Amino acid sequence: MSLKRKDLLGLRDMNSEEIELILHSSESMKEFIKRKVKKLPTLRGRSIVNLFYESSTRTRTSFELAGKYLGADTVNVATSTSSVTKGESLIDTGKTIEAMGVNTIVIRHPMAGSADLLARNVSSSVINGGDGIHEHPTQALLDMFTIKQVKGSLEGLKIVIVGDVLHSRVARSNVWGMTKLGAEVTLVGPPTLLPERLFGNLGVKYSYNLTEALKDADVVVALRIQKERQEAGLVPSMREYAQQYGITQDKIKLAKPNALVLHPGPMNRGIEIDNEVADGVASLIQEQVTNGVAVRMAILYLLNGGEDSEYIN
Ligand code: CP
């Protein structure tokens, strides 16, 4: 099996079979990364460039490791020291990278739609590593994989996504993906950070009241408050925001006893999530990071031909 598409730009345009294929392939990749020697010949001779116009620890590093584990050559382009600083456009930068024979470009960019723009202008595969407030599909895939590994399936799970929904590409991708896999999603946040009807008739619920929304939740996803994208006046103060929407031990007790807690990272501890929860038994935050490598390996493998390339064994 392979993904019958050139690019992975978002989960809005991906069907449930494609999502399940990625999650299924991630299982073998996760088994593989537990090995002492993490090196496969699967993508030998292929090249991957990480083109990041915004900061990243998890996404960039895990794509780099994922490519290396699969035998590809991986290169990071630091836009702060590239010809981007001389005014080179995104399309010209993409075409320049493509001209070097690169198979896959992973892009992170502050502008919504940038990954799509790049994909339409280069023949290399393009993977969206986060475009403005639009989508962050690989984060949502690793979130779904993490939940599925514990719960077995997302079908019928009550998932609460809480925080700065307005600026969250993670929330957007998760809603598209989780609803396709049958989860019941409730978005929670202050009115200024929670654009209602964002998802039309998808059946997503909206709430300004976290304590009410948490009742019977199977999974709670805390979102980072995006200080770098915050316009003035959307939140009265961080202290008040934390009081109403921060995930604390007391609040998490309102969810089901075996509820899971996720956060895409990086965390603002003491604002959207307390230390006791972030480091507590319900937290899967470190597991998400590990799973990020497995899921990105699966994506690189499936976009580069899947079973048609040499496989792990
Ligand atoms: N979750 C996430 O995208 O983290 P990074 O910004 O560190 O890549």
Cα-atom radius of gyration? 19 Å
Q: Would you give the CATH topology of the largest domain? A: Rossmann fold
Secondary-structure class: alpha/beta
- Major β-sheet profile: 5 strands, parallel
Distance between the termini: 16 Å
- Counting structural domains, the number is 2
Q: How many β-strands, per DSSP?
A: 9
Low-confidence stretches: none
Helix content: 25-40%
Spatially, the strands of the biggest sheet line up as 7-6-5-8-9
List ligands, each type once.
phosphoric acid mono(formamide)ester
List keywords for this structure.
9 strands, 313 residues, alpha/beta, Rossmann fold, 5-stranded parallel sheet, globular, binds phosphoric acid mono(formamide)ester
Gist of the model:
By secondary structure, the protein is an alpha/beta fold.
Structure explained in plain terms:
- The protein is built from 11 helices and 9 strands.
- The protein is an alpha/beta fold.
- Helix 1 crosses helix 11, helix 5 packs across helix 6 and helix 5 (137-151) crosses helix 11 (285-303).
- The mean pLDDT is 94.
- The structure holds phosphoric acid mono(formamide)ester.
Secondary structure elements and their pairing?
Blueprint lengths: L15 H18 L13 E6 L5 H12 L3 E6 L11 H10 L4 E6 L4 H6 L5 E7 L5 H15 L6 E5 L6 H12 L3 E5 L16 E3 L2 H4 L5 E4 L15 H8 L3 H4 L7 E3 L12 H4 L6 H19 L10
Parallel strand pairs: 1-2, 1-3, 3-4, 5-6, 5-8, 6-7, 8-9
Helix pairs in contact: 1-5, 1-11, 2-11, 5-6, 5-11
